[in-house]
Design a protein that fits this description.
The complex is a heterodimer of chains A (229) and B (966). With 229 residues, chain A is α+β, with helices and mostly antiparallel strands. Chain A contains 8 helices and 13 strands. Classes of the chains: A alpha+beta (229), B alpha+beta (966). Chains A and B meet through helix 5 and helix 7 of A and strand 8 and helix 21 of B.
């Protein structure tokens, strides 16, 4: 057991206590703390089948406004073609286009991408507005071949692989909480990022675990996700 | 248990798995796969329940869960259908609705008084003679009951799931299986739904040929193909309980409600066999012919020893052959038709030497104990009329095969139209929506080949519509000329008791008398007589009632019609609707710190908020201590639930100027300004502060409960104004605290070194950006609680760290957390109103003493025009502060009335004991005449005690606002 604890940093997931209760092993990732694993030797297999990971402490940001797409493109962001799709960047960060004028940028799992930091430091253009997505929303990942089936219990959008392609985005309701769902497969393993109002993080976590129980889904750490990707 | 029929009878039971269960506290044995009714029938226990009104003995009627005769009491579930519910080890089953015992029900005496309980009895008894209902009601309520809810039972886990298919086929009989197969081979994602444990429908039990091989063979062929087709998902034991717009289908399977979206629907829901109506047609032992066939083929149970079949079609002969082959002695086939048409089935019956009485009816059934013992058959002299005498045939089984109605419920819910052909006595369905096809016996096709061909045709239409095929649609299949429906299988008896509706114990006379009472429309007959309003929802009463009403009102059945079939199709548990609902609960990042500090949490909307810290039984002291600590020391409250909205862009000031009542164009950067929001009617609907961090950036707070509405309203207005701004609801992005009290600055100074906190540099209503405990923060100097205070807003995920840092830094100053109860008292002392508590749907700014927050200089703001008009008129009421000086008086509460003599003139909106003033203080609406300071008002307090209060100027505390501007 390492002695890393969420309380060692100022930025803490709403789920920090849940992770501790589940026996999580934490790791430093850049200047953040994330769940490395929950001590299971089979977490990668679990993630392939049905896993739930908390990525809420990882960097992310949003930009909106009529000037946002051009400004982001100017700063090297590869923009998705259509709203409600996403594009993987060269540095493995992910950009989701939520509307013609709104972008959501998510860090890679190893937090090696500098794109978010670079954009935050760049002078903002006219009609471009930053959105504090790192704090307004939690960031959960649901992985595995049974993920779409599990989602069908709590989300009215058909997320099955042949209906909801990798890279697609749904702005919908998950367990009645407004959510952004992005399909971002980890290698050959289906993966859905779910971003929901940060204050409802625990509610959503509980709902997901409850829905996953039928398929013996379980929490997994970021380490398993990195292995799969 | 009596020996069962040999295999292949009993397709649903596993003879290797005996199951022991109890019925009426007696032990029985059945097999796995047995329903309660089939297992009891195998033990010669035919009596299952007592009827709703007259407590008549009832047994299996359909063996398909389509009637209320089999309703029994299970430990967890009243009104369970014994012919649907499977047995399980040690299951305790009881009959329902009896006094004494099931076999000797004292309530059955009611049958002798049936003439005193005529149709419309409830309506008549309600209003005359005067006072009679009070006498009847207790008796009726006790007698007319069904099962008993076990209120001690822990709710079970029910949930829901969405499903998506190209084609949903409802009904897994021959037509349904063929339709699913035809659609599946074209690449459609198909869901095939059937309410029975296995696919096959009538193929499982109906005899389609004299040798009884075709049905079994066809079933095996279709199932093999379906199982080989990966495009087809089968859902058995599942009921499609309704049809809603756009092919939204609620399908219930066990404890889950599936919300299914289908692009195309094919309904192959089959047909429901109907009863003959004659004296005592409800006795145990009298059943549909299909019920007898189900008992034999599905459960290997012989339905009787000596049987009579009353029929109006050739299916009755097929039934007779089945019974004969199963060893039942057939005493007679009573054919309502004068001249039965030619059929191999009839030939086969004749060949077996079965007695056939054509042109005869069963006039009455006789009973021995609680079971059928004989039937009296009579010659039919004209439709519905029999000869004066007949022959009594002893028997313990009577099978009825006189016709069918299509299972039209889902079709009609989708807008389909049910028509009746008086000549063929058949219903037909039409006018289905485009994305819905129907096939099989629901569409009045009875020939197996015709059903299969029509199902394939329906699938072609569906796959063409989906763009998967472009095939020629085969021509419609012509209906057979021979109708299985006898036009009048209804025979009145001088002693009555010919049941049209088993659920409600309604007889021929009841239906006819309803029309005589003036209720001639079928919908009125239904409501007046309750015909079709029982658990089986008219499945077996609709046709007979329509025929009787038609005859009684000199109309055709086509003109009379049938009653509306509304969802749900089958009874459903409340758990299916209520189970596993989602109510997103919101928590701030500091939530657990509150719990660790002993907070009593309460829910404010979706948010959890600390009410106060300490034991619930000591709440008043806790709250008062928290108030005193803020007034004398320093306190910390979580205000994360406050709404936060960013308004950014070149026109941000102009936008706020139009949106809120105050002026914002000249608001300096670095300052906050009170923001009062009214709607177009000039009614106060929200408030907050607008913090200007730059020329083009405002951060506006809103009330916890109002922020979503404020945000939506902002978007709506700017959709019209098209100002160059961006509006973002960032409520959850920030955690907030308010550190308040005379020592607040002292504590904050330890953590915030990059902002000059002095009053000169950072005065009241100033805003700054800086860091607190190393966390980027927005600081707002506000005074909601009337003390020196700073709201500190930090990124959500740093909230807990901020809380820890401040609590740690304030230890020396005696910092303590305070909850929203203390905050309410503090703000009341300061005379601040809470929107929604101190305002209502009519409150304008002048009434609530907020006229100062309304700009008269600017040309427009939302609600401005109305407010200007209101200002020209005399004010009708005022919100004023009051103090109760009498220490013995009960403290008034919110909504207590302000009285002027007996007349209500206002109401209390807030009232608390003030630890600072050491008196109860409050806010109340009063008439303008009483609004002057020094006026006296009377409040009708708890227990109706009048309490005198003095109207005073606001605020109660620190009127010169010296404390918050320290």
């Amino acid at each position: 057991m390492t002695s890393i604890r969420p309380s060692q940093v100022k930025r803490r997931s709403q789920l920090a206590r849940r992770h501790i209760e589940l026996g999580a092993e934490f790791e430093h990732c850049s200047n953040l703390i994330v769940v490395k694993d929950y001590g299971s030797q089979t977490e990668v297999d679990q993630a392939k089948k049905l896993g739930l990971a908390d990525l809420s402490t990882l960097p992310r940001i949003g930009f909106k406004g009529t000037g946002a797409p051009d400004w982001a493109a100017y700063h090297g962001v590869t923009l998705p073609q259509q709203p409600n799709t996403s594009a993987v960047q060269k540095d493995d960060s992910l950009v989701a286009k939520l509307s013609h004028q709104e972008l959501l940028i998510l860090s890679d799992l190893g937090v090696t991408s500098t794109q978010i930091e670079r954009l935050e430091d760049s002078p903002i253009a006219a009609q471009t507005y930053a959105l504090p997505r790192a704090d307004s929303h939690c960031w959960l990942a649901v992985t595995g071949n049974q993920a779409a089936e599990m989602f069908s219990k709590i989300c009215a959008v058909d997320l099955r692989a042949h209906k909801f392609a990798n890279g697609e985005v749904a702005q919908t309701s998950v367990a009645r909480a407004n959510s952004i769902v992005i399909r971002h497969d980890l290698g050959s393993t289906p993966c859905f990022y779910v971003l929901t109002d940060a204050s409802a993080t625990e509610f959503l976590w509980d709902c997901l675990l409850d829905a996953m129980a039928e398929y013996t889904g379980a929490p997994v750490g970021v380490s398993a996700l990195r292995t799969l990707s | 248990m009596k020996p069962r029929l040999p295999a292949p009878y009993g397709s649903l039971i596993d003879r290797d798995m005996p199951v022991n269960f109890n019925f009426e506290r007696r032990s029985y044995q059945g097999f796995a796969g047995d329903s309660i009714a089939s297992a009891l029938a195998a033990n010669e226990q035919w009596l299952l329940s007592r009827s709703f009104k007259y407590h008549r003995p009832r047994g299996a009627l359909t063996m398909a869960g389509q009637d209320a005769n089999t309703m029994v009491q299970l430990p967890s579930n009243p009104n369970a259908l014994a012919d649907r519910e499977l047995i399980s080890d040690n299951l305790d089953v009881m009959g329902q609705n009896y006094s004494g015992s099931l076999t000797k029900d004292r309530g059955a005496l009611l049958g002798f008084f049936s003439r005193f309980l005529p149709v419309g009895f409830y309506y008549k008894a309600f209003f005359k003679p005067r006072g009679m209902w009070e006498k009847w009601a207790p008796f009726i309520r006790k007698k007319a009951g069904l099962g008993i809810i076990n209120q001690q039972l822990e709710p079970e886990y029910y949930d829901k799931q969405y499903k998506f298919f190209d084609v949903v086929v409802v009904g897994g009989g021959p037509a349904g299986m063929q339709a699913a197969l035809s659609a599946g081979v074209e690449g459609c994602e198909v869901l095939l739904v059937d309410e029975n444990p296995t696919l096959g429908g009538s193929l499982n039990y109906t005899r389609f040929d004299t040798e009884a091989v075709r049905g079994r063979k066809l079933r095996a062929q279709l199932i093999e193909k379906i199982e080989a087709n990966s495009n087809i998902t089968c859902m058995t034991d599942a009921v499609c309980n309704a049809w809603f717009a756009d092919n939204w289908l609620p399908i219930i399977r066990h404890k889950r409600l599936y919300k299914v979206r289908a692009k195309q629907t094919i309904l192959c829901t089959g047909a429901l066999e109907q009863q003959a109506v004659f004296h005592n047609n409800d006795l145990p032992g009298v059943m549909m012919s299909s019920a007898a066939q189900r008992l034999m083929h599905l459960y290997a149970v012989r339905p009787g020893h000596a049987g009579v079949i009353v029929t109006g079609n050739n299916d009755g002969y097929a039934n007779a052959l089945d019974l004969f082959d199963a060893g039942v002695e057939i005493r007679a086939i009573v054919d309502l038709r004068e001249q039965p048409c030619e059929s191999p089935m009839i030939d086969a019956a004749v060949a077996r030497g079965i007695r056939i009485e054509a042109g005869h009816a069963v006039y009455s059934a006789h009973k021995s104990g609680n079971h059928l013992s004989a039937v009296e058959i009579r010659k039919i002299t004209s439709p519905g009329v029999c000869a004066d005498s007949g022959e009594v045939i002893p028997c313990d089984l009577l099978c009825m095969a006189v016709g069918y109605t299509p299972t039209y419920q889902l079709v009609c819910q989708a807008g389909g139209q049910l028509s009746y052909d008086d000549e063929s006595a058949m219903f037909t369905l039409g006018n289905c929506p485009e994305a819905m096809q129907i096939a099989g016996s629901v569409n009045s096709h009875w020939d197996l080949d015709a059903c299969l061909a029509e199902a394939s045709r329906a699938a072609v239409i569906a796959t063409n519509a989906l763009g998967l095929t472009n095939a020629d649609v085969p021509p419609q299949i012509a209906r057979e000329s021979l109708s299985p429906n006898h036009p009048w299988p209804i025979f009145a008896h001088s002693a009555g008791k010919e049941f049209v509706d088993y659920d409600e114990d309604l007889t021929i006379a009841d239906i006819i008398n309803a029309t005589r009472d003036g209720y001639e429309h079928i919908q009125l007959v239904k409501r007046y007589s309750t015909c079709g309003m029982g658990p089986s929802q008219g499945r077996h009463s609709a046709l007979a009632a329509a025929r009787l009403v038609a005859a009684a009102t000199n109309r055709t059945v086509a003109q009379t019609g049938v009653t509306t079939a509304r969802p749900p199709f089958a009874p459903e548990h409340l758990g299916h609707s209520a189970g596993r609902s989602f109510y997103p609960a919101r928590r701030s990042n500091m939530h657990y710190r509150h719990l660790e500090a002993g907070a009593q949490m309460l829910q404010a909307g979706a948010w959890y908020r600390p009410a106060f810290y300490g034991r619930p039984d000591n709440s008043l002291k806790c709250i008062n201590d928290e108030v005193n600590n803020v007034r004398n020391n320093v306190g910390l409250v979580d205000v994360s639930t406050l709404g936060g909205i960013e308004v950014r862009g070149p026109d941000a000031a102009e936008f706020l100027n139009r949106f809120y009542t105050f002026g914002f164009v000249k608001q300096p950067v670095g300052k906050a300004r009170y923001a009062l929001l009214t709607n177009e009617g000039g009614v106060v609907i929200d408030d907050g502060v607008a913090c200007r961090f730059s020329h083009e950036h405002y951060y506006v707070t809103a009330t916890t409960g109002g922020v979503d509405r404020v945000y939506q309203s902002m978007l709506k207005w700017n959709a019209q104004w098209r100002l160059d701004i961006d509006i973002a609801n960032v409520t959850s992005a920030y955690c907030g605290v308010n550190i308040a009290g005379p020592k607040a600055r002292e504590v904050l100074a330890k953590l915030c070194t990059d902002v000059d906190l002095s009053n000169e540099s950072f005065p009241y209503m100033g805003v700054r950006e800086g860091t607190v405990a190393g966390i980027e923060a927005r600081l707002i100097r506000v005074g909601f609680v009337g003390e020196l205070g700073y709201e500190i807003h930090v990124p959500q995920h740093s909230g807990e760290a901020l809380w820890d840092a401040i609590m740690d830094a304030g230890q020396q100053q005696g910092i303590k957390p305070f909850g929203i109860e203390a905050q309410r008292v503090l703000r009341l002392e300061k005379g601040h109103i809470i929107i929604g508590q101190d305002t209502d749907a009519m409150s304008n700014p002048m009434e609530v003493q907020m006229g100062w927050a309304v700009s008269r200089q600017k040309p427009f703001f939302v609600g401005g025009r109305t407010i200007r008009e209101l200002e020209k008129k005399p004010q009708l009421r005022s919100l004023v502060g009051f103090i109760v000086h009498d220490s013995r008086a009960p403290i008034p509460k919110e909504s207590h009335l302000v009285l002027d003599g007996a007349q209500m003139t206002g109401r209390v909106t807030s009232c608390n004991y003030s630890p600072t003033l050491q008196k109860p203080i409050g806010l109340a609406y009063v008439v303008p005449d009483s609004a002057q300071a020094g006026s006296s008002i009377i409040i009708k307090s708890t227990g109706g005690v009048p309490v005198t209060a003095e109207v005073v100027n606001l605020p109660f505390y620190d009127p010169d606002t010296l404390r918050q501007e320290l």
